[in-house]
Write a structure and sequence with these properties.
This protein is an alpha/beta fold. It has eight helices and ten strands. The protein has one domain: Aldolase class I (TIM Barrel, Alpha-Beta Barrel), CATH 3.20.20.70. The strands form two sheets. The protein has an eight-stranded parallel beta barrel with strand order 1-2-3-4-5-6-7-8, surrounded by six helices. A two-stranded antiparallel sheet has the order 9-10. The two termini are 14 Å apart.
Length: 225
């Protein structure tokens, strides 16, 4: 069995400066700020994202979650929100990742792969060389109303493990794991998938708000690994 390496922790669905500060105090290395989505929790207005991102301390990544699928719209949104990372939660359909890099130098690019089957492995390996990291989630882009994150569901972690092995070992692309994570299954998730990072939303929230007790339990579980 491979040794357990403590992953980076991204707390997503941050809705206020207070929540951002709370997550950072407990040890989050990244914060997720969710812009307009077709479904799911945690959506806040772009001007709120801008205000929160301005308070994130050096060394902590601020992720703008965008459902936009064309480069000009993504660039325009980022130029308002001013995060240091872009998390593209749907497929990029107009323009390329290189176009984004040219327009937004120094901004990290993270592509979400919604793990639904073998096609997800092919998609991940095709896109990994173009981005700074992948994030494996449990959405479904093929529904009438797309699910692009925040489902609180697990997907097939065995398939995620195969993606991680190929992306990290062969392409040296870091991989985050999201979807249904909570203190009770963190060890299983890490031992099964061996991700670079973990991404939580619903697992540390109560009634849509960041729950300090759940946050403490989660980081406590990480410390016990």
């Amino acid at each position: 069995m491979l040794p357990i390496i403590k992953p980076r922790i991204k707390i997503c669905c941050i809705s206020s400066i207070h929540e951002a500060g709370l997550a950072v105090r407990y040890g989050a290395s990244a914060l997720g700020l969710v812009s307009a989505m077709p479904s799911g929790p945690g959506v806040i207005a772009d001007d709120v994202i801008t205000a929160i991102a301005a308070t994130v301390p050096p060394g902590v990544a601020s992720f703008l979650l965008t459902s936009k699928q064309d480069v000009p719209s993504i660039v325009e949104q980022h130029n308002q929100c001013r995060t240091n990372t872009l998390q593209i939660v749907d497929r990029l359909e107009a323009g390329t990742y290189q176009d984004l890099r040219d327009a937004l130098p120094g901004i990290a690019l993270v592509q979400v792969i919604h793990v639904t089957g073998e096609d997800s492995l092919d998609e991940a390996l095709r896109l990994a060389p173009s981005v700074d990291a992948l994030l494996l989630d449990s959405g479904n882009q093929n529904l009438a109303v797309k699910e692009l994150g925040g489902t609180g569901r697990r997907h097939d972690w065995r398939l995620s493990r195969r993606i991680v092995e190929a992306a990290q070992d062969e392409l040296h692309t870091p991989v985050y794991l999201a979807g249904g994570l909570k203190p009770e299954n963190i060890r299983e998730a890490i031992e099964t998938v061996h991700p670079f990072g973990l991404d939580l939303c619903s697992g540390v929230r109560t009634n849509g708000h960041l729950d300090e007790a759940k946050l403490a339990a989660f980081f406590g579980a990480i410390e016990q690994l």
